[in-house]
Amino acid sequence: MTYRLVVHPELRREVTKLHEAWKQDPSSDAGREFEAFRDAMSALRDGREGDYIGKQLSYGPSSHDLRDAAEIKVDVFDEGGTRERPRPSHRMVYREFDPLPKVENGRVVPDPNAQPVRQIVAFNHRRDDPAAIAGDRLGRVRGQQDRNLHGLTGGGRPDVGPQQPGAQTTPHRLPMPQDVLRQILRDSPPAGTAPKPASAPEANVNRLPGPGASKSKER
């Protein structure tokens, strides 16, 4: 299964800066971060999140309520891990939503080719607390449960504990929220509407340049 990807606007601005650094020097720290982001993004698009260590996030008294999100651990910098106990430097936090409905003649009709949507919310070094960054971007309040997630289970507090055997590592698939729908319609407007200019600095973040082959380092 493949997914339609949406990148949170604040993250898109960060990735644009990483891309500029990559064009100047691919071997720089920022350039390596860009390449790792690109590879992890491709994995989420292609349903290859299993190429990375991942876990479903949740809620705790000192964390944001992220029961609708999951993370994958992305190896960018060598930080002294071992094969038995890897220490990937970065985290990518994402959510998953139902496909966009197909409408014909004012009616919603089945679409066998409809793609579920994954929204990438944060990509940061683990020391910067990517879960907290994602929580802030989603308007969550640290230590408070989000009433919109009532009844949703999670996989453990964002910052605590080993992964339990058999635990779900991908997000719960939920109905698409209005802000994500608006972003999709803005970035990929319906036929007959004015497209976003290709020269806009953030216009092509979802179609990153470079080799198509994934260079995922973590298994």
Q: Can you tag this structure with a few keywords?
A:
219 residues; alpha/beta; 4 helices
Characterize the structure shown.
- With 219 residues, the protein is of the alpha/beta class.
- It has one domain.
- Helices cover 23% and strands 18% of the residues.
- The protein is built from four helices and eight strands; from the N terminus they run βααββββββαβα.
- The chain has helices at residues 9-24, 29-45, 130-137, 178-187; strands at 4-7, 53-56, 69-74, 90-97, 102-104, 107-109, 117-125, 173-174.
- The strands form two sheets. Strands 1, 2, 3, 4, 7 and 8 form a six-stranded mixed sheet that branches. It has a two-stranded antiparallel sheet with strand order 5-6.
- β5 (102-104) and β6 (107-109) form a beta hairpin.
- The longest helix is centred in the N-terminal third of the chain and has 17 residues, at 29-45.
- The relative contact order is 0.22.
Distance between the terminal alpha carbons, to the nearest Å? Answer: 20 Å
Helix-strand topology string: EHHEEEEEEHEH
Radius of gyration: 18 Å
Overall number of structural domains: 1
- Helical region count? 4
Which class do the helix and strand fractions yield? alpha/beta
Roughly what fraction of the amino acids lie in strands? Answer: 15-25%
Please give the number of β-strands.
8
Q: What is the helix fraction of residues, given as a range? A: 10-25%
The major sheet is characterized as: 6 strands, mixed
**Average predicted local confidence, pLDDT:** 83
Uncertain segments are: 156-160, 191-204, 211-219
What form results from the Cα inertia axes? globular
